[in-house]
Write a structure and sequence with these properties.
This protein is an all-beta fold. The chain has two domains: 282 residues, 5 Propeller (Tachylectin-2, Chain A); 215 residues, Jelly Rolls, CATH 2.60.120.200. 2% of the residues lie in helices and 43% in strands. It has two helices and 38 strands. Strands 23, 24, 27, 33, 34, 35, 37 and 38 form an eight-stranded antiparallel beta sheet that branches. Strand 3 and strand 4 form a beta hairpin.
Length: 528
């Protein structure tokens, strides 16, 4: 399936973002000819996605370092905004090391010889609330260190970086820690966080953002001593560009990888060139401002992007899908093709609370997602396609005592119940319906549904623009952020408590890009 967003422009250059998707808080290392990127994943399972590139522009999703969140029982239900915050990735002593924080429990370490896995079970090395954004440093003399920031929401303060001496295997600290950088002592600095620690050209460097994810900036700090006084300088800020809050990322070779907060789209990833001034300070982008286009760091290699749509080969979802909590056996049922989901009973009908919503990141600024649904289940069951954040909307089938209905509903108040976006439409109990979600600029989701034609073998490319023709249901919804993540595009099947035995069958989930012409009203398209 083709990519919705491709950063490689095909002429030796690239456009930003290089990853248009919620690959938040990226960190990158280079090992030989290969680059590896990891990102925070919060309450999504599996967590800690691992991506691979040979040019820092084209990326493939190659696995996850965390198959389940720990402590297991805590994450049996969705805990929005919790879980895996900003991690660090390093290659040392022949192994890959990921150090990641859970702001409610502490700092964990997992390692692997191959970044595709297997990864060791996460080991808690620093327990406590509010410890976030850790990064290790192994010095040339064999000593190891760890720096981290603080989450005010958990411990009551922030804007400082704390460092520890560590055992070389990062199993435990060797001291009680020290304040390495106090943001209060830096004029204009607030919410200092996300440190990444390096040693280059006789200097120790800490790259750390401040100012918050939406409107912040990036510091570089340097010292001749690993635990000495660090001198700060702002090296990247929005300036006159449209790239808000450019910060938190990785310094790799002569490039800087960082994110930009795009609201419901999540934190998308940008790539900036890095030069140095006469005093050896890094200069990022265009004299400290982000660039939108540039020549690629390295030429050659395949043009690619992380997957989005899915054929569900063998009835199994691809690696782009995650759950909002630790999954349980029985949520997915065997099927040769397409996806079969069990209608899992759940006390709350609010899809923000339901753990068995299979979701993926919004893959680009404009796209169309399409699948068909058949619901074989007793009254009290429902299934469909959802766009979910702190508010959500869904389209699909609802089996009620009085019959089966094609519905489009939303829950757009923090604790409010669902309401119909359009009046429900009665359909036969064995109906198969085609569900379409078209996302346009500013993450507006346009839902449409129509009866599927059993003999229709046309692919989605042949049906472009047809989803709204004669549709039984149409409605729109402005997607919103989740808990520190972008909106999620998902599939679900649920039931009221005490109702069991139902299942929902989804055909391959087709995602395609859309053009400006397809966004015109139907009458305009017919006359063009």
């Amino acid at each position: 399936m083709t990519s919705v967003w491709t950063a490689d422009t095909g002429d030796g250059g690239y456009r930003n973002p290089v990853l248009f998707g919620d690959w938040s808080d990226p960190d990158v290392v280079r090992v030989g000819r290969d680059f590896y990127l990891i990102a925070s994943s919060f309450n999504r399972v599996p967590g800690l996605p691992v991506l691979h590139s040979t040019d820092l522009v084209n990326w493939r999703l190659v696995g996850h370092a965390l198959q389940r969140l720990v402590p297991e029982a805590v994450y049996a239900t969705p805990r929005h905004g919790c879980g895996v915050w900003a991690p660090a990735l390093r290659h040392h002593a022949g192994r890959f090391w990921i150090v990641y924080p859970d702001p409610d429990h502490g700092i964990y370490v997992t390692t692997a010889v191959d970044p595709r896995g297997p990864w060791t079970p996460p080991r808690l090395v620093l327990a406590g609330r509010g410890l976030i954004d850790p990064c290790p440093l192994w010095d040339d003399d064999g000593n190891a260190y760890l720096v981290h920031a603080w989450a005010k929401s958990r411990c009551g303060f922030n804007n400082r970086l704390t460092a520890y001496r560590m055992t070389p295997d990062l199993t435990r600290p060797l001291d009680t820690g020290m304040v390495l950088v106090d943001g209060e002592a830096i004029p204009g600095c607030y919410t200092l966080e996300g440190p990444k620690w390096y040693r280059r050209d006789g200097w120790y460097w800490i790259f750390a953002p401040a100012g918050g994810v939406a409107n912040g900036w990036q510091y570089a700090m340097r010292s001749r001593s690993v635990l000495g006084r660090y001198e700060p300088r702002v090296v990247l800020a929005q300036g006159a560009t449209e790239i808000n809050g450019p910060h938190q990322g990785a310094w790799v070779d002569d490039w800087f990888v960082h994110f930009q907060d795009r609201g419901a789209y999540g934190r998308v990833v940008h790539l900036q060139p890095v030069t140095t001034d006469d005093d050896g300070w890094p200069v990022i982008g265009d004299r400290g401002a982000p660039v939108l286009h540039h020549r690629k760091p390295l030429q050659g290699g395949p043009v690619c992007a992380p997957p989005s749509g899915d054929r569900f080969t063998g009835g199994v979802p691809g690696p782009q899908w995650t759950w909002p909590a630790n999954p349980q056996p029985g949520w997915l049922l065997p099927r040769g093709g397409g996806l079969r989901m069990a209608c899992v009973p759940w006390p709350s009908g609010d899809l923000r609370d339901v753990p068995n919503v299979l979701g993926q990141r919004l893959p680009g600024p404009r796209f169309r997602a399409e699948t068909t649904l058949r619901l074989d289940a007793p009254a009290g069951s429902r299934a469909g396609v959802v766009v979910r954040g702190k508010a959500y909307a869904w389209i699909g089938l609802d089996h009620q005592t009085g019959g089966t209905f094609l519905v489009c509903r939303t829950a757009d108040a923090p604790d409010g119940p669902e309401r119909d976006l359009v009046p429900p439409v009665a359909v036969s109990g064995d109906a198969e319906v085609r569900l379409t979600v078209t996302v346009t600029d500013d993450a507006v989701a346009h839902f449409a549904a129509e009866p599927a034609e059993p003999a229709d073998r046309a692919g989605p490319a042949e049906r472009v623009g047809r989803a709204g023709l004669g549709a039984s249901v149409q409605a729109s919804f402005s997607a919103v952020v989740g808990g520190w993540i972008g909106a999620t595009l998902g599939l679900f099947a649920t039931a009221r408590p005490g109702v069991g035995g139902g299942q929902a069958e989804f055909s391959p989930f087709c995602i395609s890009g859309i053009s400006d012409v397809e966004l015109l009203p139907l009458s305009s398209r017919e006359g063009s």
